[in-house]
Structures are given as structure tokens and as C-alpha cells.
């Protein structure tokens, strides 16, 4: 099962959602992201938020269209996205894809990036990836990973998260590395590229943000 979560970020950053609808896919709206789903002809399985960014008429439509709508007070400790992601993780999906979480307000984007790192630390079995029209963002714990060339995602960047990264090795890349220590704040591994159809990266300590992008 795949769970697709759609936030209320700028529509210009959200790719065509129908391309991500396959068998056993569940859709979740986050606040105004619920409207984005309905406008695309997709009925959400669930929706979360304080819904302070929608009109009363829109909210009434959500309550009719969405079988599992959770409305919260604006004064709360979690963001709407965190509430939705926490629910999604508890469903034990194979993967979670997040849309409408980049662009617009930088504080919202950084908070969403922190959520990826939070759930990576919990060592959940499912992959969580943040997707917009030009980027795929994921967070990795130490280990060995294989990557494949992806049409439209020429560049691959590796950035330390909240911890320094030790033992970073990149094989099959234009700019290879061998057992490299990469401290927080380093831009050493921005805009790398695969030289063949596949490559691998590995590291022994820390946490790594992996971003696949096009221009």
C-alpha cells in the first residue's frame, strides 16, 4: 500500500497527481491540500488540519466528500502535516509520498524536512519521500543504497542532516568519494550525477538528505 499526502503548498509545485495513482493507493489531504485533491478528481481517504485556510463552504464540502476528516483547533503542538504523517505511518504502508510540501513558505518546507528526518530516526520500514515538480527528497540512515538513473532527475545531491556524516562513499558517480567525512553545513556533495545506469552510496554514521533534481 502507498499513501500519498497532499499539503496546501503552491499548486505550481505540485506535479500531476493522477500519475501517482495506482492500485492500493490511499490519498490524504492536509488542510487546503484536500481541495487540491478534489479539484483533481481524487477522493481523499482522510483529511487532517485546522482548515483555517479554507472557506466555510469549502470545509462543508470536505466534510461531505471525505469519510475520515479530522478537524483540530489552530492552537496545537503539531503542524497539520505532522498529524497527517503520523496517521499515515501508523497504517504501515510500503511507502509514503508527500506533495504540496515545498515552495511558498520556507518555514513550512523546513518543518516538513524535519519531519522526514524525525521518522527516519524512528527506523520505520516504509520509505517517505517528498515530491514536487523538480525534486524528490528523502532522508537516509547509515547503510548501503543503490540508485538508478531517472529520467528528468539528472542531479543527485547528498547533504548532511542534523548530524555529521562519516564514511560517505559514492560509486558510479561523476564525482566519486571514498570513506569521506562530511560535516554539517558542507556543500561538498551538491549536484552530482550518475555516469551509468546505476550507482551506489553508503555511509557509516550520521543522517543524509538525498535530493534528486532537474533544472
Structural class: alpha/beta
Fourth-tier CATH superfamily name of the largest domain: Thiamin pyrophosphokinase, catalytic domain
Distance between the termini: 31 Å
Average pLDDT, rounded to a whole number, is 93
Task: Using the CA coordinates, give the radius of gyration.
Answer: 18 Å
- How many strand segments? 13
Task: Indicate the CATH topology of the largest domain.
Answer: Rossmann fold
Report the biggest beta sheet as strand number plus sense, adding barrel if it closes: 9 strands, mixed
Query: Which spans have pLDDT < 50 for at least 5 consecutive residues?
Result: none
Helix % is: 10-25%
| CATH level 1 name of the largest domain | Alpha Beta
Widest β-sheet, arrangement of strands? 4-3-2-1-5-6-7-13-9
Q: What is the count of DSSP helices, taking H or I runs of 4+ residues?
A: 4
Number of domains: 2
The H/E string reads EEHEHEHEHEEEEEEEE
Strand content: 25-35%
CATH architecture of the largest domain: 3-Layer(aba) Sandwich
Which structural traits does this protein have?
single chain; 9-stranded mixed beta sheet; elongated; 215 residues; 2 domains; alpha/beta; Rossmann fold
